[in-house]
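Inputs:
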Amino acid sequence: SQQGEEDPQALSIQEGENATMNCSYKTSINNLQWYRQNSGRGLVHLILIRSNEREKHSGRLRVTLDTSKKSSSLLITASRAADTASYFCATDVPNDYKLSFGAGTTVTVRA
Amino acid sequence: EADIYQTPRYLVIGTGKKITLECSQTMGHDKMYWYQQDPGMELHLIHYSYGVNSTEKGDLSSESTVSRIRTEHFPLTLESARPSHTSQYLCASSEPGQGATQYFGPGTRLLVL
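Outputs:
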Protein backbone atom coordinates (compact mmCIF):
# COMPACT_ATOMS: atom_id res chain seq x y z
CA SER A 1 0.00 0.00 0.00
CA GLN A 2 1.15 3.54 -0.67
CA GLN A 3 2.85 5.01 2.39
CA GLY A 4 3.80 8.44 1.06
CA GLU A 5 1.67 10.99 -0.74
CA GLU A 6 3.13 14.07 -2.37
CA ASP A 7 1.42 17.41 -2.67
CA PRO A 8 0.93 19.16 -5.03
CA GLN A 9 0.65 16.69 -7.88
CA ALA A 10 2.13 19.25 -10.27
CA LEU A 11 3.93 22.55 -9.93
CA SER A 12 4.96 25.10 -12.56
CA ILE A 13 7.37 27.89 -11.68
CA GLN A 14 9.60 30.45 -13.33
CA GLU A 15 13.35 29.91 -13.44
CA GLY A 16 14.94 31.43 -10.35
CA GLU A 17 11.90 30.86 -8.14
CA ASN A 18 11.77 28.39 -5.28
CA ALA A 19 9.80 25.15 -5.50
CA THR A 20 8.29 23.52 -2.44
CA MET A 21 6.61 20.14 -2.33
CA ASN A 22 5.29 18.11 0.55
CA CYS A 23 5.09 14.46 1.47
CA SER A 24 2.77 12.93 4.04
CA TYR A 25 2.99 9.37 5.30
CA LYS A 26 0.85 7.12 7.43
CA THR A 27 3.00 5.08 9.83
CA SER A 28 6.16 5.62 11.87
CA ILE A 29 9.29 5.59 9.76
CA ASN A 30 13.01 5.01 10.10
CA ASN A 31 14.09 7.25 7.25
CA LEU A 32 12.61 9.36 4.49
CA GLN A 33 14.31 9.87 1.16
CA TRP A 34 13.67 12.11 -1.81
CA TYR A 35 14.34 11.00 -5.38
CA ARG A 36 14.18 12.77 -8.74
CA GLN A 37 13.02 11.20 -11.98
CA ASN A 38 13.59 12.82 -15.34
CA SER A 39 11.08 11.95 -18.03
CA GLY A 40 11.46 8.35 -19.19
CA ARG A 41 14.40 7.64 -16.89
CA GLY A 42 15.12 5.87 -13.63
CA LEU A 43 15.10 7.56 -10.24
CA VAL A 44 18.09 9.35 -8.78
CA HIS A 45 18.59 9.68 -5.03
CA LEU A 46 18.70 13.27 -3.77
CA ILE A 47 18.74 13.26 0.01
CA LEU A 48 17.95 11.11 3.04
CA ILE A 49 16.68 12.39 6.37
CA ARG A 50 16.51 10.14 9.43
CA SER A 51 13.56 10.08 11.79
CA ASN A 52 15.59 11.83 14.52
CA GLU A 53 16.56 14.69 12.22
CA ARG A 54 14.47 17.79 11.57
CA GLU A 55 16.25 19.50 8.70
CA LYS A 56 18.90 18.68 6.17
CA HIS A 57 20.58 20.61 3.36
CA SER A 58 22.32 19.55 0.18
CA GLY A 59 23.31 22.27 -2.26
CA ARG A 60 20.09 24.00 -3.33
CA LEU A 61 17.94 21.38 -1.61
CA ARG A 62 16.45 21.74 1.86
CA VAL A 63 14.46 18.93 3.43
CA THR A 64 12.45 19.13 6.64
CA LEU A 65 10.83 16.35 8.60
CA ASP A 66 8.05 16.68 11.15
CA THR A 67 7.42 13.25 12.65
CA SER A 68 4.57 14.55 14.82
CA LYS A 69 2.68 15.52 11.66
CA LYS A 70 4.08 12.62 9.65
CA SER A 71 5.17 14.98 6.91
CA SER A 72 8.24 16.17 5.06
CA SER A 73 8.92 19.01 2.66
CA LEU A 74 11.46 19.44 -0.11
CA LEU A 75 12.50 22.94 -1.07
CA ILE A 76 14.48 23.63 -4.23
CA THR A 77 15.91 27.14 -4.19
CA ALA A 78 16.78 29.26 -7.25
CA SER A 79 15.27 26.71 -9.63
CA ARG A 80 16.76 25.99 -13.04
CA ALA A 81 15.30 24.49 -16.19
CA ALA A 82 17.31 21.34 -15.43
CA ASP A 83 15.26 20.89 -12.24
CA THR A 84 12.25 19.99 -14.39
CA ALA A 85 11.43 16.45 -13.26
CA SER A 86 9.16 14.40 -11.01
CA TYR A 87 10.09 14.25 -7.34
CA PHE A 88 9.21 11.29 -5.14
CA CYS A 89 9.42 10.73 -1.42
CA ALA A 90 10.15 7.24 -0.16
CA THR A 91 9.92 5.88 3.36
CA ASP A 92 11.14 2.79 5.13
CA VAL A 93 9.57 1.49 8.30
CA PRO A 94 11.06 -0.41 11.26
CA ASN A 95 11.98 -4.02 10.55
CA ASP A 96 11.39 -3.66 6.81
CA TYR A 97 14.14 -2.94 4.30
CA LYS A 98 11.78 -2.08 1.48
CA LEU A 99 10.96 1.47 0.40
CA SER A 100 7.44 2.74 -0.18
CA PHE A 101 7.14 5.48 -2.81
CA GLY A 102 4.51 8.15 -3.23
CA ALA A 103 2.95 9.21 -6.55
CA GLY A 104 5.34 12.12 -6.98
CA THR A 105 5.19 15.85 -7.71
CA THR A 106 5.85 16.90 -11.28
CA VAL A 107 7.82 20.15 -11.37
CA THR A 108 8.12 22.25 -14.52
CA VAL A 109 10.59 25.12 -14.48
CA ARG A 110 9.89 27.68 -17.22
CA ALA A 111 12.81 29.56 -18.71
CA GLU B 1 25.35 7.76 -12.94
CA ALA B 2 24.74 4.48 -11.14
CA ASP B 3 26.31 1.28 -12.49
CA ILE B 4 23.03 -0.49 -13.09
CA TYR B 5 21.85 -1.41 -16.55
CA GLN B 6 18.61 -2.53 -18.09
CA THR B 7 17.94 -3.99 -21.51
CA PRO B 8 16.06 -3.52 -23.66
CA ARG B 9 15.16 0.12 -23.08
CA TYR B 10 12.04 -0.19 -25.22
CA LEU B 11 10.12 -3.30 -26.24
CA VAL B 12 7.01 -3.64 -28.40
CA ILE B 13 5.72 -7.17 -28.52
CA GLY B 14 2.60 -9.11 -29.38
CA THR B 15 0.23 -10.79 -26.95
CA GLY B 16 1.27 -14.25 -25.84
CA LYS B 17 5.01 -13.82 -26.36
CA LYS B 18 7.51 -14.72 -23.66
CA ILE B 19 9.81 -11.87 -22.68
CA THR B 20 12.76 -11.40 -20.35
CA LEU B 21 13.81 -8.00 -19.09
CA GLU B 22 17.46 -7.89 -18.14
CA CYS B 23 18.95 -6.04 -15.18
CA SER B 24 22.56 -6.09 -14.10
CA GLN B 25 24.64 -4.07 -11.66
CA THR B 26 28.38 -3.84 -11.08
CA MET B 27 28.29 -2.42 -7.55
CA GLY B 28 28.22 -5.78 -5.80
CA HIS B 29 24.92 -5.01 -4.09
CA ASP B 30 23.12 -7.92 -2.48
CA LYS B 31 19.70 -6.28 -2.56
CA MET B 32 17.89 -5.84 -5.86
CA TYR B 33 14.35 -4.76 -6.73
CA TRP B 34 11.87 -4.60 -9.60
CA TYR B 35 9.27 -1.84 -9.71
CA GLN B 36 6.38 -1.28 -12.08
CA GLN B 37 5.43 2.30 -12.88
CA ASP B 38 2.63 3.57 -15.09
CA PRO B 39 3.06 7.10 -16.57
CA GLY B 40 2.69 9.79 -13.92
CA MET B 41 2.04 7.26 -11.19
CA GLU B 42 3.82 5.88 -8.16
CA LEU B 43 6.27 2.99 -8.20
CA HIS B 44 4.94 -0.38 -7.16
CA LEU B 45 7.37 -3.00 -5.87
CA ILE B 46 6.71 -6.29 -7.67
CA HIS B 47 9.79 -8.38 -6.77
CA TYR B 48 12.87 -8.12 -4.60
CA SER B 49 15.90 -10.15 -3.67
CA TYR B 50 18.22 -10.07 -0.67
CA GLY B 51 20.94 -12.06 -2.37
CA VAL B 52 21.74 -15.07 -4.54
CA ASN B 53 18.92 -17.64 -4.58
CA SER B 54 16.64 -15.25 -2.67
CA THR B 55 13.50 -13.89 -4.36
CA GLU B 56 10.34 -12.46 -2.83
CA LYS B 57 7.12 -11.05 -4.19
CA GLY B 58 6.51 -7.39 -3.61
CA ASP B 59 3.47 -5.40 -2.61
CA LEU B 60 1.84 -5.45 -6.05
CA SER B 61 0.80 -8.81 -7.40
CA SER B 62 2.49 -9.54 -10.71
CA GLU B 63 2.36 -12.43 -13.17
CA SER B 64 6.07 -12.02 -13.80
CA THR B 65 8.79 -14.15 -12.23
CA VAL B 66 12.39 -13.39 -11.32
CA SER B 67 15.58 -15.31 -10.62
CA ARG B 68 18.81 -14.48 -8.82
CA ILE B 69 21.53 -16.93 -9.78
CA ARG B 70 24.33 -14.36 -9.72
CA THR B 71 24.73 -11.33 -7.49
CA GLU B 72 24.96 -8.93 -10.39
CA HIS B 73 22.04 -10.24 -12.43
CA PHE B 74 18.29 -10.07 -11.68
CA PRO B 75 16.19 -10.83 -14.78
CA LEU B 76 12.39 -10.56 -14.90
CA THR B 77 10.36 -12.89 -17.10
CA LEU B 78 6.81 -12.77 -18.40
CA GLU B 79 5.80 -16.18 -19.78
CA SER B 80 2.87 -14.84 -21.82
CA ALA B 81 2.68 -11.09 -22.31
CA ARG B 82 -0.70 -9.35 -22.28
CA PRO B 83 -1.74 -5.72 -22.97
CA SER B 84 -2.30 -5.29 -19.21
CA HIS B 85 1.47 -5.75 -18.77
CA THR B 86 2.15 -2.55 -20.70
CA SER B 87 4.10 -0.34 -18.32
CA GLN B 88 7.56 0.86 -17.38
CA TYR B 89 9.69 -1.58 -15.39
CA LEU B 90 12.45 -0.18 -13.18
CA CYS B 91 15.25 -2.21 -11.64
CA ALA B 92 17.16 -1.00 -8.58
CA SER B 93 19.82 -2.20 -6.17
CA SER B 94 21.04 -1.14 -2.75
CA GLU B 95 23.62 -1.84 -0.09
CA PRO B 96 22.62 -3.65 3.12
CA GLY B 97 20.92 -1.81 5.95
CA GLN B 98 17.68 0.01 6.46
CA GLY B 99 17.26 3.25 4.62
CA ALA B 100 19.97 2.39 2.13
CA THR B 101 19.93 4.46 -1.02
CA GLN B 102 18.49 2.63 -3.99
CA TYR B 103 20.24 2.99 -7.33
CA PHE B 104 17.97 2.75 -10.33
CA GLY B 105 18.49 1.61 -13.88
CA PRO B 106 17.05 3.64 -16.78
CA GLY B 107 13.99 1.43 -17.05
CA THR B 108 12.37 -0.69 -19.75
CA ARG B 109 9.24 0.64 -21.43
CA LEU B 110 7.09 -2.33 -22.45
CA LEU B 111 4.20 -2.13 -24.88
CA VAL B 112 2.18 -5.27 -25.45
CA LEU B 113 -0.10 -5.15 -28.47
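Remarks. DSSP finds no helices and eleven strands in chain A. The mean pLDDT of chain A is 92.
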